[in-house]
Amino acid sequence: MFEAVAFLVIGLVFLVWSADKLVFGAAALARNVGISPLVIGMTILAMGSSAPEMMVSATAALDGKTDTAVGNVLGSNIANIALILGITALIKPLSISSTILRRELPLMIGVTVLAGILLWNSHLGFYEGVLLFVLFTAFILAMLRISRNEKATGTSDALLDEQESEVPEGVSNIKAAVWVVIGLVILPLSADMLVENAVVIAQYFGMSDLVIGLTIIAVGTSLPELAASLAGVMKGEDDMAVGNIIGSNVFNILAVMGIPGILNPSILSEYAMGRDFWVMLGVSLLLVAMAFGKSRRISRAEGGVLFCIFLAYQGYLVLNMTA
């Protein structure tokens, strides 16, 4: 048991590290071949924080653990809002001024509702997975078009500027390529280690596949978002801190949840829809209410509320770990 915990932690550390290096190398290579920082920021960097979830979801689905893969999506989205934004707002209240954020928040609610429609019958099928990937591609293309139009018209947006500033420059092609290769090799290996040992721990404690995805794996794969949000708020880039969460939640539903549907269409635990979806939708609506309030900010008190919701939810799951 101790060995499984140790290997799970090691797998998680390497999963997050390799995803970061893969994104760094890919972004640097893209910049070196002439792709604009705007495009890189809206695609490679924006999707980068969801790379651990994508790899874990694929690994779990291939292992026949579709409940774990879907639990990872639902749990990560809940953790992104309740845990990460809760902690971030407790450290420093978050102002929300970006027009993109005001546009993406309703979109986040839309794709969250879509997830509920697809999970309503507790089954995730192949064509549903394809639909999610098609919508994901359309989302990326639409965001790129909108962003280019705003740049062309000289409209300034804090989130766009912050994303572009994160694109690495001055990195040689050889160094960038090495990081890409290292990331591509270690990412799947670490994901496999994480899922394999999570299953061992789940069996030891009698946890269901769904709960292990909602707890240990979901919180672990959300670490890149936590790091990005904390770094953003420390630099005064509030829009980046909140934008990473909104973008990650959209990516998780459209891309990460589409993976198990395509790789391993399955009947899901009834609790995914009957319990966990509603928690995800609830905290998403709560975030919208906070963001669109009169002050256009998430206060420390509101951050405390989000964090307490997360603790209560995780506590409930631990007490009902077989469900």
UniProtKB/TrEMBL annotation:
One of its GO terms (cellular component) is plasma membrane. The keyword Transmembrane applies. One of its GO terms (biological process) is intracellular calcium ion homeostasis. GO terms for molecular function: calcium channel activity; calcium, potassium:sodium antiporter activity. It is found in: Membrane. Pfam families: Na_Ca_ex. Its main location: membrane. Residues 4-143, 176-315 form the Sodium/calcium exchanger membrane region domain. It comes from the Bacteria. It is a multi-pass membrane protein. The keyword Translocase does not apply. Keywords: Membrane, Transmembrane, Transmembrane helix. The chain crosses the membrane at residues 69-91, 126-144, 176-195, 241-263, 275-292, 304-322. PANTHER family: INNER MEMBRANE PROTEIN YRBG, SODIUM/POTASSIUM/CALCIUM EXCHANGER. This is Calcium:proton antiporter. It comes from Vibrio nereis.
